[in-house]
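[SOLVED] Predicted holo structure with flavin mononucleotide

Edit: marking solved, answer below. Original request kept for reference. I posted the sequence and ligand SMILES and asked for the 3D complex as structure tokens.
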Amino acid sequence: MHSAIPLTEKVFWVGVNDHETDLFEALWPLPYGISYNAYLIVDDRTVLVDAVKGHFLDEHVNRIREALPAGRSIDYLVVNHVEPDHTGALRILRELFPSIRVVGNKKTLELLAGFYGAGGDTHVVQDGDVLDLGTHRLTFHLTPMVHWPETMMTFEASTGILFSGDAFGGYGTVDRGLFDDEMDLAFFESETLRYYANIIGRYSQMVQKAIAKVGTLGIKILAPTHGAVWRTQPRVAVDWYDRWSRQETKSAAVVAYGSMYGNTQKMAERVARALVDAGIRTLVHNLSHSHASYVLRDIWTSRALVLASPTYNTGLFPTMDDLVRLLENKLIKDRLLGVVGSYGWTGGAAKALTAFAERSKWRIVEPVVEVRCAAGDQDLERCAQLGRNLAAAVRA
Ligand SMILES: Cc1cc2nc3c(=O)[nH]c(=O)nc-3n(C[C@H](O)[C@H](O)[C@H](O)COP(=O)(O)O)c2cc1C
Ligand SMILES: [Fe+2]
Ligand SMILES: [Fe+2]
């Protein structure tokens, strides 16, 4: 079953569903897979908008062949984004369809030459350039750093389709439904937020610029390179990305801890209990069990965060160290932070967490709880106090 799926009479989804890759970018878990969306426009000139990861070429080509009218080849391949999840198939596509001219901006073509070697026909575009296909008319909008420097979006005027690249995309294959009206949107929002927090979040400012630029185009169908195609409520996906890129948070908290022997865990759980008792929706992650991908997703929309770590070889527990680095790398800002540290002899964890808060300019909510070995009743009461203070700060 290789069916190309029509978006309109002349525009087809010719992407693939990837259930093979365990970790996207060799980092982020894909329990529900991911799709690489590509689109074929059939007109006087035929255009493939984006391609797929190399491993999935066979299925991709079958769908292209199905959608192409007899005797026609591909005239243009628009490369909105060079990352190999969308261009891995390029070399072979060029061999199969020798008439292909690759359309991209100056940076696109530089990067393509770097990955796949120079050669082949190209067509260089600048911001605002137009390509007439007959009935369809493509306009190219440069949107750098969403998610790479060469990234652009392509708008088709007659159908109102915005081919948006990674922007507005999410995890999850589209064999469960391609269009927004065919999907369980609650499930899909969670997987789209996880994709956003993992992949795009660092570039939130550039997402804001991109939304300002393409938000006024009159988008009727939003067609990203991953996840749902939005034909009923494209505004919903734009609103999600708008809120997430403004780092809008909810009155909610995440408690993330590392713990080898349960001492730090006990303190973290005490803080969480106090938050819950105070009516704050709280998610708890043991970092030895929850992958950072999910922790980042939950932190992205929560106003408060509690980080609890034992001291491990003078510093943070390794999984906490990883999380803190990721939080800094993703440029997450303006959260309320509760700090809980434990140690056996000279300590270090609490100090490392407060240093992180200072670097990130996050507000630390008192008390910082630092405990030697196992927490006693007084220590646990301070944990509860931290939870209550955080709840009050979240509400303020
Ligand atoms: C492998 C290991 C390394 C540790 N390194 C340090 C250290 O460098 N400095 C320190 O003060 N405590 C150190 N500790 C002590 C722990 O921080 C302390 O036992 C703490 O209560 C452990 O919390 P947990 O039960 O939540 O794992 C270490 C403990 C272990 C097991
Ligand atoms: Fe990308
Ligand atoms: Fe991508």
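OP edit: The two ends are 55 Å apart (CA to CA). Thanks to everyone who chimed in.
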